[in-house]
Design a protein that fits this description.
There is one protein chain. With 629 residues, the chain is of the alpha/beta class. It has three domains: 304 residues, FAD/NAD(P)-binding domain (3-Layer(bba) Sandwich); 131 residues, Succinate dehydrogenase/fumarate reductase flavoprotein, catalytic domain (Flavocytochrome C3, Chain A, domain 1, Alpha-Beta Complex); 150 residues, Fumarate reductase/succinate dehydrogenase flavoprotein-like, C-terminal domain (Methane Monooxygenase Hydroxylase, Chain G, domain 1, Up-down Bundle), CATH 1.20.58.100. The chain has 17 helices and 21 strands. The protein has a five-stranded parallel sheet, covered by helices on one side. Strands 1-9-8-7 form a four-stranded mixed sheet. Strand 8 and strand 9 form a beta hairpin. Helix 10 crosses helix 11 and helix 16 packs antiparallel against helix 17. It is globular and about 75 Å long. The termini are far apart. The structure holds ligand SFD and adenosine monophosphate. Adenosine monophosphate binds next to helix 6 and helix 8.
Length: 629
């Protein structure tokens, strides 16, 4: 403890996280900071070049609207998102991102990201909204632009500093505290406003990959619920905490399926060769009106496949061989067919090499040639991700110009993308009810939020007082190291000790209870009121033991706090699944005691934690359409 130096940094705008949204925020904030003479500081727990979900790269940009070219309208995108989430979307926020996303994509291209082009020089689409890229270096390119922009305004970047929680001045955020994962340093960041984008949450539920496969997940395990923990602890209202995302992925290495379904037009079939999207079509009638929209919502696509699995009809296969052969056979002559086959093989491998390298390795290890045999797919464990087809995140003010008379009182409180906590702005996975923004939309939303945050600073240009006892926070943050040092000699095996719990064991305990009580893979994604109440009680016990987390070194100290953050996300989730007494997204979770969708629950289910009393409040918020059906 006495070896930990306290480093204090005072800034105007504090950008938390160095992922897609924060990189967008850095570019935009630098522009406005220059005009207003403001200081911008960015903090990332890792190295920005390869941090966050895009670390490994991506093979597609999943949100491109094509507004200027008249490809689609804003209304088209809003309706797509609304339908995919079974009606639950903040249409003002979705439209706000959609009208700005194309310019982020054009910037990526300008900065050097190769986007596939067709013979006429147009973008190659994977699907209606998705563009194909050679994206292995996507994050490096986007981070470089962010760093260059910050350099222009003498902004500071702190890498390998883990943010633990907020500093408050009453109902206004005053900064953040954390620690270096490489040096004995405790950090206190004081700021006039914060743009928060600490990513989603992985490994809250027990993953399919355990034991020798532990660590392999679809979304990155280093996104550990820090966004949810920070916003809850700052007293901000949260939305859609029940709307987890269950992606269907290639089994065991989690390779994404989008390119297969959309670009290669593949089918998925059970062991009998039946395509569940055809044989189970009648089930969609139970989920109207969303069962009849196109494309069929992601959770309903999941659900139809899950029904096959529950009937014992697995394995479910992506028919890669069939799709490739069919596309090649459409070519006019044998020479062209052979050429096309080679091209498709290359594209199939690149899809994984660009964003899920392990899947390519698994194909190689299992002697899988996608043009010759199918590959198994499966519904993965639940993730918390506000940027893809889930929706969990903070409840934000929308832009004023997108409000109607009906929406303004509910959706607008002064600054675009500000949470209900003054001065705390959110984007990407940290912001809720604005799904389907993906990498490009997260970047655009980071820009929007940063612009809002600068406006807030200019109009509220005082440095808030930090009301928290910083020394007490420092003691709390490093306590796991002190505990380990004090107690480690009491047993011969440092993993087994009555005085403490190591973070990995704590994580296993959290995952087991979420899996079994909150509808994880083992429970076939089903739960009910009794199970959830039991889960809540086990979570309360776990929270008590969180006080006894122990860390051998700085790296393990990070693991401790990651798991505390996961616990926040878990609790917000269980409470909200319990609160919403219906099943609205059957392919994400199934409330067996309330198995149908109900008009009474056509609303947002929000929650709020009061840091002073420790009480949670659950509340309904209305859904307003800004785009007509
Ligand atoms: O195919 C702390 N995503 C896809 N988006 C696309 O556009 N196309 C795709 O092809 C996509 N697919 C995909 C995607 C992600 C992954 C992992 C795979 C495949 C395998 C989604 C996007 O990546 C995602 O929407 C955005 O990245 C979200 O952006 P943002 O900024 O909300 O999160 P981030 O990029 O993960 O960054 C988080 C940052 O926070 C840092 N951090 N820093 C300090 N202290 C703490 N406590 C912290 N906790 C986290 C991180 O280091 C990081 O910098 S496909 O499957 O659909
Ligand atoms: P994924 O690889 O599943 O993350 O999908 C990438 C993109 O394609 C996302 O925008 C998905 O919503 C979309 N997508 C994936 N599969 C389908 C499908 N079968 N029908 C429509 N859209 C899909």
């Amino acid at each position: 403890m006495e070896n930990f130096e306290t480093v204090e940094v005072t800034t105007d705008l504090l950008i938390l996280g160095g992922g897609m949204a924060s990189c967008g925020a850095a570019v935009e904030a630098s522009y406005w900071a220059k005009q207003n003479g403001l200081k911008v500081t960015l903090v990332d727990k890792a190295a920005m070049d390869r941090s966050g979900a895009v670390a490994m790269g991506l093979s597609a940009i999943n949100q491109y609207v094509g507004l200027k070219d008249g490809e689609n309208s804003l209304e088209d995108y809003v309706k797509y998102v609304r339908n995919d989430l079974m009606g639950v979307a903040r249409e003002d926020l979705v439209a706000s991102i959609a009208r700005n996303v194309d310019s982020s994509v054009h910037l990526f291209e300008k900065w050097g990201l190769p986007i596939w082009k067709d013979a006429e020089g147009g973008y190659v689409h994977e699907g209606r909204w998705q563009l194909m890229i050679n994206g292995e270096s996507y994050k490096v390119i986007v981070a470089e632009a962010a760093k260059n922009a910050l350099k222009e305004v003498d902004g500071e970047i702190f890498e390998r500093v883990f943010i633990v929680g907020p500093l408050m001045d009453g109902d206004r955020v005053a900064g953040a505290y954390g620690f270096s994962v490489r040096e004995n340093k405790f950090y206190v960041f004081k700021a006039k406003a914060i743009m928060l984008a600490l990513g989603g949450a992985v490994h809250v539920f027990k993953p399919r990959s355990t034991g020798e496969g532990l660590g392999r997940a679809w979304y990155p395990p280093w996104n550990s619920g820090s966004s949810a923990a920070f916003t809850l602890e700052a007293g901000a209202e949260m939305t859609c905490q029940e709307v987890r995302f269950i992606p269907v992925r290639f089994k065991d290495a989690y390779g994404p399926v989008g390119a297969w379904f959309l670009l290669f037009k593949s089918r998925a079939c059970n062991f009998r060769g039946e395509a569940y999207m055809e044989t189970r079509r009648d089930e969609l009638q139970n989920w109207l009106p969303y069962g009849s929209v196109k494309p069929i919502p992601a959770n309903l696509r999941n659900w139809l496949g899950m029904l096959d699995v529950m009937d014992g009809l697995g394995p479910i296969y992506m028919m890669t061989h069939e799709a490739i052969q069919k596309l090649a056979a459409a070519m006019p002559d044998p020479v062209e067919q052979k050429k096309k086959l080679k091209e498709l093989e290359n594209e199939a491998w690149e899809d994984f090499l660009d964003m899920t390298i392990s899947q390519a390795i698994l194909w190689a290890a299992t002697d899988t040639q996608p043009e010759e045999k199918p590959s198994e797919i499966a519904a993965a464990e639940p993730y918390f991700i506000g940027s893809h087809s889930g929706a969990s995140g903070a409840w934000l003010s929308g832009p004023e110009d997108l409000q109607t008379d009906a929406t303004k009182a509910d959706y607008f409180w002064g600054y675009t993308n500000m949470s209900t906590t003054k001065g705390l702005f959110c984007a990407g996975d940290a912001s809720g009810a604005s799904s389907h923004k993906f990498s490009s939309g997260s970047h655009a939303e980071g820009r929007i939020a940063a612009k809002g945050a600068v406006k807030f600073i200019v109009e509220n240009n005082t440095q808030p007082n930090v009301a928290d006892d910083v020394e007490a926070l420092k003691t709390k943050v490093v306590a796991p190291m002190a505990l380990f040092d004090a107690e480690k000699g009491k047993t011969t095996d440092p993993d087994i000790n009555p005085a403490y719990i190591r973070p990995k064991m704590y994580m296993f305990r959290l995952q087991k209870l979420m899996d079994e009580y909150a509808g994880g893979v083992t429970a076939q994604f089903a739960t009910n009121k009794s199970l959830l109440e039991k889960g809540l009680s086990l979570l309360a016990d776990l929270r008590v033991d969180a006080e006894k987390l122990a860390a051998e070194d700085l790296h393990e100290l990070m693991r401790c706090w990651e798991n505390v953050h996961r616990t926040w996300q878990a609790e917000a989730h269980v409470r909200t699944v319990l609160y919403r007494e219906e099943t609205r997204w059957p392919g994400y979770y199934f409330r067996a005691d309330t198995p149908k969708m109900s008009d009474d629950w056509f609303c947002f289910a929000n929650c709020k934690y009061d840091p002073s009393s420790g009480e949670w409040t659950m509340l309904k918020r209305p859904i307003h359409k800004i785009v007509a059906d």
